[in-house]
Amino acid sequence: MIIDCPFCKNDVIAHSFANESGYYAIYNHAPVTYGHSLIIPDKHVTDLLLLPEAEFIQLFKFARKVMGFLNDFFKTSEFDMSLQQGVNAGQSIEHLHLHLIPRRENDLPFGEEWFQKLSENQLSTLDSKVLLDDEVFKEISDKLRSTWNSQFRTL
Questions:
Q1: C-beta atoms surrounding 38 within 10 Å
Q2: Structural domains in the chain?
Q3: At CA 17, angle to CA 14 and CA 18, rounded to 5?
Q4: Nearest alpha carbon to residue 146 among 71, 76, 69, 77
Q5: Crossing angle of helices 53-73/134-152, nearest 10°?
Q6: How far apart are CA 155 and CA 153, in angstroms?
Q7: By the 8 A CB rule, do 47 and 85 touch?
Q8: More confident residue, 148 or 152
Q9: Model confidence, pTM
């Protein structure tokens, strides 16, 4: 765990709505579209290409499960996935993470693309990002967690 890494902090992990096989899913505090969530490894990892094969497979198996869940929860069947590795690729936090972005017709203003919004958010400092109100973020996260737990709780 890296102390300065926001994705390694317990308060961020505590807001996750799903956790499985060494990965957790969290609603994005600065979502590009309604439903925008992240898949993040529990351990501090910076390079997708250095993940052992089994962990690589688990990442994408979990991402597929979470994306299906998000599509059901947010009533869509369309989505974008994005993983930036390195500053020149748009990565703003040096901890591997996969963006899951549910899509709907007219979810962004005409001429605006999700990757432009994602890039703008990543280039912003935390102070200048358009963040969800903490209460709204907590409410969405709690609903996602409750629904996830009711669908995937193992007995």
A1: 22
A2: 6-145 (3.30.428.10)
A3: 105
A4: 69
A5: 110
A6: 6
A7: yes
A8: 148
A9: 0.84
